[in-house]
Amino acid sequence: MGTLKRIAVVATAVTVLVCPSIAQAGANRILSQGASAAGQSAAFTAQADDASAVYYNPAGMTQLGGVQTSLGVLLIGGSSSFRNSAGQTAKSSFDGSVAYPPPMNLYITANLKDLGITQLGDLTAGLAVLAPFGTLIRWPENGPFNTARTFAALELFDIKPTLAYKLNDQLSVGLGADIYTFFNFWGEGQLERQFISAGPPTFPLAGPGAQVEVNGRDTTAGFNVSLMYTPFRNAESKPLANIGFVYRSQATMHLKGQFLVNGAVQADTSQTLVLPQIYTGAIALWPVRDQDHEWKLELDVDYTGWKSVRNLDLRLSNPPGTTLPQPQNWRNTYTVMIGTEYKWLKPQMLPEWELALRAGYWNSQTPIPDNNFNPEIPDSDNQSISVGLGFLCKGRGQFLGLIECGKSGGGILRPKAIALDTAFQVLLYEPRTVAGNVNSTVNGNYNTTFYVGSINLRVNF
């Protein structure tokens, strides 16, 4: 095949595949990283009083005593439907009733002073492994835009070693790393996108109906800084007001992979995926906080710098030295989150338990203009409505009626409390009409609703 023909083939592939989908995958930020927060639509940055503080506000880790752990899972369901002006329709799935493998989160925090390490002052260490960005979706292979997308997966993990230091009773600060990577044993283990060839002349490299795939993977790092300011406390030294702030830096992934047709490699590829910098500010107030009850109200504002996604140029090994510029022109976005939590600390019927009722709402913008929209992620402005329940067992309480939850002085390896948090969210995406797209087959109307169930098991030592 001649050089000009090869360039035409790859240019077509980029137009229908690489650029829109890479950007969409990067934009798919998962805000719910713990069931306590998910029940409040992620309005948790100024509260941050369980082990998920490693993500939501590392400075909040200084509120946690001893060693605290949390393991959670997100079960994501729902679908998106499409209809174009010709009356053609399609419906997406997650390759099942829920996305599999599901996004997971694991947190561990350790208050070093409580562990007898006093030389470092009020220092708390934390570690988390979670999935802050990701997507998994399948569209019918005989659908109206199968030349744009039939399958996409991005199961990206963030490993977060983190430290927090309590400067005084009012101010704590945090500093952590964000190591973004893929795991071979989890899902596809790479960014992967598939579509069906339209055949010549649109796609001369493969005949009509051929399966085309682009993939890539990399490991990169960023950082985060945070603070927690507590201007008011009650007589028991518990916060009555908290102000939280978190900055997450931009990180750039240089994804190296392959371009395949019917499983055969046609070229090696490299692509640049920019993960945005993020600013989050929050305030939490406790109108009620005594020995029997706690009521919290919180407002978070999250600013995501998607404007850094200016282009997604594709570099190819064949023809050698070829770079295809692909401007994106994304825009920055805001998400506003409101959450509340009411706790019964000593319920009359269950004196060894704490019960929490949670609710929340968010309003989030899409950064993606119509011309770069791709059904890989049927994104639009959206709203979240959430509810949640929390159960914390302590002392001689029986978790699941079988396990004694623990007591103070039981030793470092004996639990002092066991908690189960659950949440349910409905994500309502505004109906979106896409017009003027670089791939005309995706122009049409999209309606999307997702459902997210979250569950976390916490054990405090």
Full CATH superfamily name: Outer membrane protein transport protein (OMPP1/FadL/TodX)
Distance between the termini: 65 Å
Order of helices and strands: HHHEEEEEEEEEEEEEEEEEEEEEEEE
CATH architecture: Beta Barrel
CATH class: Mainly Beta
| Tally of separate domains | 1
Q: Within the CATH hierarchy, at the fold level, what is the topology?
A: Porin
Strand content: over 45%
Report the count of strand segments: 24
In round numbers, the mean pLDDT is: 87
The largest sheet has its strands arranged as 1-3-4-5-6-9-10-13-14-17-18-19-22-24
- Pick out the low-confidence regions: 1-26
Tertiary shape:
elongated
Query: For the CA atoms, what is the radius of gyration?
Result: 24 Å
Number of helices: 3
- Classify the helix fraction into a percent range: under 10%
Q: Main β-sheet: number of strands, strand sense, barrel status? A: 14 strands, antiparallel, barrel
Structural class computed from helices and strand pairing: mainly beta
Describe the structure using short key phrases.
461 residues; mainly beta; 14-stranded antiparallel barrel; two-stranded antiparallel ribbon; disordered N terminus
Describe the secondary structure blueprint for this structure.
Blueprint: H1 3-27, H2 35-38, H3 53-56, E1 67-83, E2 89-91, E3 104-111, E4 123-138, E5 151-166, E6 171-181, E7 191-196, E8 211-216, E9 220-233, E10 239-248, E11 251-261, E12 264-275, E13 278-289, E14 293-304, E15 314-316, E16 322-324, E17 333-344, E18 353-364, E19 382-394, E20 398-399, E21 403-404, E22 417-429, E23 432-434, E24 444-460
Antiparallel strand pairs: 1-2, 1-3, 1-24, 3-4, 4-5, 5-6, 5-7, 6-9, 7-8, 8-11, 9-10, 10-13, 11-12, 12-15, 13-14, 14-17, 15-16, 17-18, 18-19, 19-22, 20-21, 22-24, 23-24
